[in-house]
Amino acid sequence: MTTRYAALLRGINVGGHKKVPMAQLRTLLTGLGHSDVTTYLQSGNAAFTSASGAGEDALAEELTAAIEEHFGFRVDCLVRSGPYLRAVAEDCPFPAAGLEPKQLHVTYFSGPVAPDRFAGLDLPAFLPEEIRLGDRALYLYAPEGLGRSRLAEALSRPALTKGVTATTRNWNTVVKLVEMTRD
């Protein structure tokens, strides 16, 4: 049985740091035994088919180790199945169809995140920006975009991400990952 997955690499190709060319990422994933490998943009999004039977966490660990061995630096990776990515998109608590893609973002987490992690944030002070938690995901509505979001800045504090890998994608990329991982 084969499963279609997306690999989400955190913090690559930003400001000239941690350069991971997408052609090399495709070659690396193919070398790990995966097929139908495609990439999206230069920001570390790849889709692949795997028959290994390994779970998402094992695939992410394998890719993290392979990138470190090949490129000489560590890159945190998340791997998510196509059905999971579709569920995240379908469960969006904000009216995605009525928003500009730059206004809506999803932060994917390596594991479950409890609401009490964000209890110290004065969320009403950030309005009209809002967040909602989902299954290993956080939805962020930022009307002025991520670059101008005070709430996104607050969410990136180390205390809020301690113990989990977190990587954020805008809504265009969320939708594209769903398309790329359709069976």
UniProtKB/TrEMBL annotation:
Pfam hit, one: DUF1697
Domain of life from the UniProt record: Bacteria
Listed InterPro entries: DUF1697
Transmembrane parts of this sequence: none
PANTHER family recorded: BLL4334 PROTEIN, DUF1697 DOMAIN-CONTAINING PROTEIN
Name the record gives this protein: DUF1697 domain-containing protein
Organism field: Streptomyces lavendulocolor
